[in-house]
């Protein structure tokens, strides 16, 4: 019979589900709040219980999402939980979620055995809420302190704070639900029941998830980067000569960082000049000097590798650009958790991708990176410049032979130094490092020359990064490492003769007077990527170090008491050589422009652009957007020329007295002169 509870085909005395229903699922609504010993549950009570169920489900979902997010960030960044001064606080935060789960679980177990007292219920509610809130507060305070230091959202901690708060909310909701169930209880059913979602529960779940999503998004938004992009425009050619006067001026105020030198400089991009500052970069319109695209964030830029800098203001120390100038790489200081690398399109300002360069230790060193036209090498990983995907990872054994302490001794190189590769490689070649030293010396004779005179490059094609090639006879600069411009470097044209001659001279003054047949050689050729012919430079001494030039400058031999001067310049784009002493040469082109000497500022007389023969090419008056009544300027470093598509610029980073006359400010002044 229907509804009598009499079994159908079962022995008498056994209670089963009515005929026509599933024995394991209660098809009728099960009212957890119903109690035969109490008044019927009101609609308001039922609705509040359903909302608590929705809150519990939504909070648990938020906790899981936040926990997974924190776990992934902890795997993406190194040393996230390494707090030397807060180790005790961190151990406390690790134990708090465990304590909350134990308290919650103990109450659930007790609630299934007996009806808890009011004191027990109140204590459980207070403890669960307090532990979740305190746990959240500790994580949030840690996040705020660490984020303020690096001016970016510190990984994992904000997500853990949200997870702790969500767990606390879920625990409180669960305790309240179980308490109502105990006060309106009917005999517990052993059947599995499928809870039907109700509108109040669904609304509460949706609201909880929405609040959780906003809470998770806010920390990152607080330190979000500011980016302005523009459509790509056709690139203009680089001017070949100076104009008769200044076409535009641009002064950029740089905040005073106390005793620290400001970061400021200009490099050439694919569509015009690019300004590098403490917190990012901006592209300039070559016709007007106005800002086209920009990218800034709160963190401060870091220097790349061990490259030499003139001062802190040298833009080459803080930015790496591909040989074709289409990609710009910036790195931000994120403390012990690594360096976020940002790759920008230099024509539009678009962020191509971001990559976290992690350190193998907690030492905060500049990341060792390198850019070709196709890839970015960050540590052992080779990434595509198109989308940031990892193309390959170098095995630890890749450089074992060259890192061996006996390598230099086996090759009879007495004074041997190893340097990382440059930030800009060849067009299709990676330069992993340089091994430099002096040619062999006679036995038991201490060499007087402490400069490197001979270098070997460890190269590989960027599409086959483990196919190493050792290229020797590369000529270093006076700073002991080779010079690279546009994917080219300088090499001894007759390595055997040069090696023999260098071995005969121990006095550095003697070596500076020697001349060797030198040639410009492509890095791609050294790595076997192409077969571009070397270009003869003449009988000269060594290349000059200067990262801001468009050409490779080579110094001639000098008398012992005189300083060597540039005698030839090689343009990698046209593969032509400009000889400084050629009276018939046309006063145009990249070689001529790079050879212009910019006088160090004298008093308030401005900047002079002087030709190699001493004649004046152009005079620039000092410029400031907010000059004092009695202007006073002090350049932080010597001004320099940047040849960019569409314009030739003179860059001067100086300190200027402000209009009030009471203080000074840092200004990066850019003059369009071609």
From TrEMBL:
Which positions, given as ranges, span the membrane?
54-72, 92-111, 123-145, 157-177, 198-218
Keywords attached to this entry: Membrane, Transmembrane, Transmembrane helix
InterPro entries, per database record: Quinoprotein_ADH-like_sf, WD40/YVTN_repeat-like_dom_sf
Decide whether keyword Transmembrane helix is in the record.
Answer: yes
Question: Could you name the domain of life of the organism this protein comes from?
Answer: Bacteria
- Does the UniProt entry include the keyword rRNA processing? no
Query: What is this protein's record name?
Result: Uncharacterized protein
- Organism for this UniProt entry: Actinomyces glycerinitolerans
Q: What is the lineage of its organism?
A: Bacteria, Bacillati, Actinomycetota, Actinomycetes, Actinomycetales
